[in-house]
Amino acid sequence: MDAEQLRENAHKMVDFIADYYKSLESYPVLSQVQPGYLRELLPDSAPDRPESLQDVLDDIRQKIIPGITHWQSPNYYAYYPSNSSTAGFLGEMLSAAFNIVGFSWVSCPAATELEVIVLDWLAKMLKLPDQFLSSGQGGGVIQGTASESVLVVLLAARDKILRKSGKRSLEKLVVYASDQTHSCMQKACQIAGIYTENLRLLKADQNSNYALTPDAVSEAISSDLSEGLIPFFLCATIGTTSSAAVDPLSALGKISKANDMWFHVDAAYAGSACICPEYNHHLDGVEEADSFGMNAHKWFLTNFDCSALWVKDRSALIQSLSTNPEFLRNKASQEHTVVDFKDWQVPLGRRFRSLKLWMVLRLYGLENLQHYIRNHIKLAEEFEQLVNSDSRFEVVTPRTFSLVCFRLLPQPDHQDDGYKLNYDLLDAVNSSGKIFLSHTVLSGKFVLRFAVGAPLTEETHIKAAWEVLQDQATIILAEI
């Protein structure tokens, strides 16, 4: 494809994407297809001869789009958001065009240096301690997801403690987190060789608004020490997956320090809100942390994937993850004058992801990003008020950011405490295609999660979503 063919085909693709966004609200938010639908629509082998772009686009329109759950729809309220934006999209285009593999500085100096600079910018927006900046012993790196961030810091912490206690003590290492912590913590332990029985997922309940309590951590550590085990890693969360709970960083950080443990803070979702001064207090105590992560691809208008991770001591990562085969040796790396991000992550290869974050920060600016976050929180507050205005519903746990956890109240003598009632409500609203919600279970209750965060969501969409929920609730209650 020469430059003119690229220009022609790229224009067609941009037109297609623009038309998709223009008609986004006309699609069912949750895909309504059945498993295996696509195999019936596509040939069982690749074509022998090239086909036209127009034919491919026609197939995307007719066969692929029906199987897409539309995360960018203004009526998408499930899980947590996965933001797209013009700025992020343009950055992705550039990254795809350059198509570099930036494993080391010499493989693409601009990719490495821009990543260092942009993560310093973002750290300053979050008011993170100076120890997390590249000017000291720490610094930031873009991982694919928060799951990768948790894994690499767990590996660094594991190797750090094993150098001190001996390799044979692996079976004694213990990890602590709330039972509200993302499941990536469990997977990271499985990969890192931490014994399953040595992962302490400590119970958090409604008494603490589902935050991890320092007393629970202290008691667990004390018990493990008495058994001759080695506490070495504690994970706190700012904005848990189920309910957006906020763990008390200061108290947990002090416990970690007293026990010589690695303290990681996972702010994958709610970290974005902390660029607003009125929400930054949720990071009080982050100065105690050894590592901190947030997902710019969730609620920060940066197309997936872009998970920012900062560490206070980059050498801990490098000691765990560095390899230095002959074919990668070069003068800059050998002289230790550059950063080689291959030593900060699991894979060797990496994309030019900092481009899209850089473009988001430049084309929006801090003030517009703060306005964007505040607007979603305001819309969530409005939805919360609507729930509270209908006596058939209840808000299950206090709203902190842009997630509302609520449920349809069962009759007092209901056997399963409204589990089936709310399951049926969720199924009904999602099957309608008008909105898409997800759920969780809190203190044994089946709870609906309404996460505001899609870039195109406005007040009219919030009101329309509430009408869908009310209408379906009326139908379900009438059938009881």
UniProtKB/TrEMBL annotation:
Modification N6-(pyridoxal phosphate)lysine, positions: K298
Single GO MF descriptor: tyrosine decarboxylase activity
Cofactor dependency: pyridoxal 5'-phosphate
InterPro entries: Aromatic_deC, PyrdxlP-dep_de-COase, PyrdxlP-dep_Trfase, PyrdxlP-dep_Trfase_major, PyrdxlP-dep_Trfase_small, Pyridoxal-P_BS
Recorded metabolic or biological pathway in which this protein acts: Alkaloid biosynthesis
Keyword check for Plastid: no
Domain of life of the source: Eukaryota
GO cellular component, one term: cytoplasm
The protein's name in its UniProt record: Tyrosine decarboxylase
Species annotation: Asparagus officinalis (Garden asparagus)
